[in-house]
Design goal:
Elements: H1 3-9, H2 17-31, H3 33-37, H4 42-61, E1 67-73, E2 77-82, H5 99-105, H6 129-134, E3 136-145, E4 148-155, E5 158-168, E6 173-180, H7 192-205, E7 210-215, E8 229-232, H8 238-245, E9 257-263, E10 266-274, E11 281-286, E12 289-290, H9 296-316, H10 327-331, E13 334-341, E14 347-348, E15 354-355, H11 358-378, H12 380-413, E16 422-423, E17 434-439, H13 441-450, E18 456-461, H14 473-478, H15 482-489, E19 506-510, H16 515-531, H17 533-537, E20 541-544, E21 549-553, E22 556-560, H18 563-574, E23 583-586, H19 595-603, E24 610-612, H20 615-629, H21 633-651
Parallel strand pairs: 1-7, 11-13, 17-18, 17-19, 19-20
Antiparallel strand pairs: 1-2, 2-6, 3-4, 3-6, 4-5, 7-8, 9-10, 10-13, 11-12, 14-15, 16-18, 20-24, 21-22, 21-23
Helix pairs in contact: 9-11, 13-19, 16-20
The chain binds ligand 28F.
Residues 52, 55-56, 59, 80-82, 84-85, 87-88, 99, 103, 111, 113, 115, 174, 176 line the site of ligand 28F.
């Protein structure tokens, strides 16, 4: 052991008060992991990676790191590497320990220490490296700094190897490897696509930073792919983010509009572009943290946008005396990314995904007011295109209002007049009622016979559904396929949507696990997302999970919902008799299940699995939908190609 290493090891022998505190700190993480990473489900598992990457990004924000690499190694071990300055290794006066050790063992002592970066706190974010350490079966960190390579190891948060020098180097940077603790997580398998989406988002938000992600796991039964690798670097930052979000749409003006500004310790940047679709997409971030709940930055953006466009319309004479555009008119077909950086972000709401700092509203409003006005004056052709879009939107909204009114009046007259395709339940209390929206008449038939009619209603849907993307709101309200859904749910639509009138507190989509099934699911989710969003936000939408396999041994029958379960159940049924013949058949669709099978496997509240649809699922469906229905051929072809593999996997 070198003298230098010895010097580092020296103080740790003293078991002082601060060390006791450290132990208590990480113990708390293992006792209540959800408090620190949200959950111990797959989302929490992925969160571990984001925590480590966040630290590397802070080093990039401070101006010292240009490349971050995230690798999924065999066995779902994660390796994250950066080319920053390397975490400091000198012994700290207060603790008597190397800074590196403190970063990995003291709660809330992550890399959030100013130094040019922004303090990121609140919500689940920035809880730091020590939380990842506490929740890892093992973790090792290697720092290249000052010519030396330092290494340190831990297990479940406890140090298993003191920091030592293991070699020499001519570069600087930090590398962390960890294996999430299977004792702490329900599932320890990483999903490459989930990590990819997140890393791409971070690359867009940090212009010029390169993030590489690689999958080194061998291919598995569930995953055909191995050795995937994606390297992302966007010099244009959020401008390119907007182009990316609009990739399957027709833009109404060639260049993405970009405005930015700074005030005191806060800064904001906004990129936006209109396309010929009817929906608005606003993705907002505070300190690189996604805020799907919106908040002050979005409010400032919306108010200023409406004000600027109205003023511009008046000034150019496009808007006549007494005419005005609503906020929604202005945002129809608009895709925007708002990214703000501030010192003390307040994340509010139940899911802590809403920014509460009101001075940010003023900042965003001010920047947009000044810079967008200027932009429109300098780019009259773009201004004209935006005004045309907003005016058409305004007229269509008026037509939709009239159509909606006629729906409202009708349902008032034929009070309770329910659609023909609805087999309602007897119970009337919405909290106790469920509605299954079933694809196909034969599946619908089995569901009607198999259900518990006391509280389960069935609505069959069949045939090709309306293309929600291309249709205007007024057409959607009158559409014959969607009308029964609207009427059966009873809560109205769009601006009229009223959760209190909802007739069922479980809206369950039951569709096959094939291409047609996923098509109908995507359509319905997109429809709910765009026109009944509170339904999803309040957790009322579910997906039924029908089994994939039927296993038969003599008179004994079981079902399995995944390949893994099929193998497990088959082994169980075989028991000690290795020669037993087990017949395994694959369910081709809901339609081929008997009413009893359907009830037992998919509808009986005692036995079934329901998957609650999250806003994230719906946003994804909405994106896939735009891609499938949009004008652009190339992204659509790419999606079908990628998913064809998935589909053929399913059909084996
Ligand atoms: C793979 C994950 O965690 N990278 C990091 C740094 C660099 C510094 C730092 C981090 C200083 C005293 C806490 C270096 N030189 N990648 C990473 N790179 N943290 S985390 O400082 C942390 C504080 O204790 C760093 C000078 N200043 C800061």
């Amino acid at each position: 052991m070198s003298e230098e290493t010895k010097a580092f090891l020296e103080p740790k022998e003293t078991y002082d008060a601060s060390q006791i505190q450290v132990l208590e700190g990480l113990e708390a993480v293992r006792l209540r992991p959800g408090m620190y990473i949200g959950s111990t489900s797959s989302s929490g598992l992925h969160h571990l990676v984001y925590e480590i990457v966040d630290n590397a990004i802070d080093e990039a924000l401070a101006g010292f790191c240009t490349h971050i690499t995230v690798t999924v190694e065999p066995g779902d071990v994660i390796r994250v590497s950066d080319d920053g300055r390397g975490i400091p290794v000198d012994v700290q006066e207060q603790t008597g320990k190397p800074a590196l050790e403190v970063v990995y063992t003291v709660l809330h002592a992550g890399g959030k220490f100013g130094g040019g970066g922004y303090k990121v706190s609140g919500g689940l974010h920035g809880v730091g490296a020590s939380v990842v350490n506490a929740l890892s079966e093992w973790l090792e960190v290697e720092v290249h700094r000052g010519g030396n390579i330092y290494q340190m190891k831990f297990s479940r948060g406890d140090k298993t190897q003191d920091m030592k020098i293991i070699g020499q180097t001519d570069r600087t940077g930090t590398t962390v490897r960890f294996k999430p603790d299977p004792e702490m997580f329900e599932d320890t398998v990483y999903d490459y696509e989930t990590l990819h989406v997140r890393m791409r988002e971070q690359a867009f938000l940090n212009a010029g930073l390169r993030i590489t992600i690689a999958d080194e796991r061998p291919e598995s039964a569930d995953r055909e792919e191995s050795e995937r690798r994606d390297s992302m670097c966007y010099e244009g930052g959020i401008r390119e983010f907007v182009s990316y979000l609009n990739r399957s749409k027709q833009p109404l003006h060639p260049d993405v509009i970009y405005v930015a500004g700074v005030r005191e310790d806060s800064e904001a940047e906004i990129a936006l572009q209109w396309n010929d679709s009817y929906n608005e997409v606003i993705d907002s971030f505070a300190n690189n943290i996604h805020t799907p709940g919106g908040g002050m930055h979005e409010t400032g953006f919306k108010t200023a946008l409406t004000r600027v466009l109205n003023a511009y319309g008046k000034k150019t004479g496009v808007l006549k005396e007494g005419e005005s555009l609503s906020g929604e008119d202005c945002r129809e077909g608009m895709t925007a990314v708002i990214s703000v950086k501030l010192v003390n972000p307040q994340f509010e709401g139940q899911t802590k995904d809403k920014l509460g700092n009101s001075d940010i509203r003023t900042l965003v409003d001010g920047i947009l007011q000044e810079k967008l006005t200027e932009f429109l004056e300098e780019n009259p052709a773009v201004g004209r295109a935006i005004m045309d879009k907003a005016l058409t939107a305004s007229r269509a909204r008026e037509a939709a209002r009239r159509a909606r009114e006629s729906i409202r009046n009708k349902s008032g007259l034929e009070s309770g007049g329910m659609p023909e395709k609805l087999q309602d339940c007897n119970e009337k209390d919405p909290a106790l009622c469920e509605i299954y929206i079933v694809e196909g008449d034969s599946a619908g038939g089995s569901a009607i016979q198999g259900r518990d009619s006391r509280f389960q209603a069935i609505l069959s849907m069949w045939g090709k559904m309306l293309n929600v993307e291309k249709a205007r709101a007024d057409k959607i309200y009158k559409n014959e396929k969607l009308q029964p859904v609207i009427t059966a749910l009873g809560a109205g639509i769009g601006e009229d949507f009223n959760l209190e009138k909802l007739r069922y507190h479980k809206v369950i989509i039951m569709a096959d696990a094939d291409v047609d099934g996923s098509h109908i699911r995507t359509l319905l989710l997109t429809f709910f997302f765009r026109y009944m969003r509170p339904l999803i936000e309040n957790g009322y939408v579910y997906s039924a999970v029908p089994p994939l396999y039927k296993l038969t041994r003599g008179k004994q029958q079981r079902v399995a919902y995944s390949d893994e379960e099929r193998d497990r159940v088959s082994a169980e049924m075989r028991g000690d008799n290795p020669n037993a013949k087990i017949d395994i058949s694959r369910y081709k669709g809901l339609g081929e299940m008997s009413k009893d099978e359907l009830w037992e496997t998919t509808m009986d509240p005692e036995k079934r699995t329901l998957r609650r649809i999250t806003l994230g699922d719906a946003i994804q469906a909405d994106q896939i939908f735009s891609l499938l229905m949009g004008e652009e051929v190339e992204p659509r072809r790419a999606w079908i190609e990628t998913n064809a593999k998935y589909v053929s996997n399913l059909d084996i």
